[in-house]
Every structure is written in C-alpha cells, then in structure tokens.
C-alpha cells in the first residue's frame, strides 16, 4: 500500500526490502542494509525494518552491491523478522 501523498511505493523509496524468490535456486534482495551473517546454510541481511534470513544448502553470492544481492544455492526458506507496522 502507498502512503497518502507518496508517488512511489515503499520498496522503491528504500523503506522496506523487496525480496524475489526464483524457484528454490535463487533469491534476490533489494534495499538491504548489509550482511549480518554469511554461512553456507544461512545468510542474514539487515533491513530498515529488521532482518531477512535466507536458509538453505550451498548458499553463495551470485551478485552483491549496496543496492541488491542475489544468492544462489538450494533455497529452503526466507524469513522476515521485525517487519510489519505493528512491531
């Protein structure tokens, strides 16, 4: 949902992460604020509203920049903690 008076959705203005899951082999996360944990079975990103955790097997970065990251491997799950308006 867009806030009143805003021309752009929050994921464009950098307020919330945008996470795209491509099957179970790739995850793309935009608007992250850095990596907290990087292990072969778990990668945790800091975001404006909390943390985004990617779990799986043989996880590796396909691309990493300040704007976005792409992770490849056997993706088992994506979890958002601390996200949402009521937290």
Order of helices and strands: HEEEEEE
Spatial gap, N to C terminus:
17 Å
User: Roughly how much helix do the residues carry, as a percent range?
Assistant: under 10%
Using DSSP, what is the number of strands?
A: 6
Number of helices: 1
Mean of residue pLDDT values: 87
Tell me the β content. over 45%
Rg on CA atoms, Å: 13 Å
The poorly predicted ranges are: none
Oligomer: single chain
Alpha-beta content class: mainly beta
Main sheet properties: 6 strands, antiparallel
Shape, principal axes of CA atoms? globular
Q: Order of strands across the widest beta sheet?
A: 1-2-6-5-4-3
Task: Provide a descriptive summary of the structure in words.
The chain is mostly beta strands and 87 residues long. The chain has one helix and six strands, in the order H-E-E-E-E-E-E. The chain has one helix at 10-13, and strands at 18-22, 26-30, 35-39, 42-47, 50-64, 68-81. The chain has a six-stranded antiparallel β-sheet, with no helix packed on it. Strand 3 (35-39) and strand 4 form a beta hairpin. The longest helix has 4 residues, at 10-13. The mean pLDDT is 87.
